Amino acid sequence: MPLDFWRQVRIELDKIKPVFLLAESDSRDMLYAAFDATYAWDATARERFGPATDDAIMPFFVSEGIPMMYNEQQAGDPKRLAFFEKDPIPWRKDPMEALWNAPWSGEMIPVANSRPQAVLTFLRRAEDDEVFAAFNFSPTRHSVTISGGPQSGSYVERFSKMLVAFDGEDPIDLPAWSWRVYERRAR
């Protein structure tokens, strides 16, 4: 359908009530025309991101916005599904627990680190809950220093369950294509 059609659809729908429109497209023009979000269906996550798959996906679940996942991520199944054919999904436990549920919310607050060209660090805070995340978006191991910032205090690393305290010049060791997600213990 042409973009003018979707623009008009959006205008007419908004007269009735607010709606959320999701386009199956990788065109950013769809966002500007009428849609609230877009996605493209042309590869599995492993085909798109290779060895960086888990690292590329995790930010969607701890950052602001809408986490979009493929069935194979939710089911722990790496195969590409047939699009117009019945293709049952063998559901099994996926080792990536964070994909099951992401209950945190709140604004992303950037946190400075010593390797900003390769590592992203930020904090999210909502009422008494906090999540501090660090992502190494490179094929190289990095030990980054976190200097000051809003993340000071005690956290539990989400997956290892280890207690960690941040109080100044704190190092975080991040293997290639990896992340750390910390949850705030009691304030």
Descriptive overview:
- The structure is a single chain.
- The protein is globular, with a radius of gyration of 19 Å.
- It has a six-stranded antiparallel sheet with strand order 3-4-5-10-7-8, with helices on one face.
- The protein contains five helices and ten strands.
- It has 187 residues and is an alpha+beta fold.
- It has helices at residues 3-16, 28-33, 45-49, 53-62, 71-75; strands at 22-24, 37-39, 107-110, 119-126, 129-136, 142-147, 153-157, 163-166, 169-174, 179-184.
- Among the domains are: 1-40, no CATH class; 107-184, Immunoglobulin-like (Sandwich).
- It is 21% helix and 28% strand.
- It starts with a helix and ends with a strand.
Round the Cα radius of gyration to an integer and report it: 19 Å
CATH superfamily of the domain at 107-184: Golgi alpha-mannosidase II
CATH arch. level architecture of the domain at 107-184: Sandwich
Termini separation: 52 Å
The main β sheet shows up as: 6 strands, antiparallel
What share of the residues does DSSP label as strand, in percent? Answer: 25-35%
State mean pLDDT (0 to 100 scale): 80
What's the CATH topology label of the domain at 107-184?
A: Immunoglobulin-like
Instruction: Using the alpha-carbon principal axes, give the shape.
Output: globular
CATH class of the domain at 107-184: Mainly Beta
The run of helices and strands is HEHEHHHEEEEEEEE
Instruction: Give the structural class.
Output: alpha+beta
Helix content: 10-25%
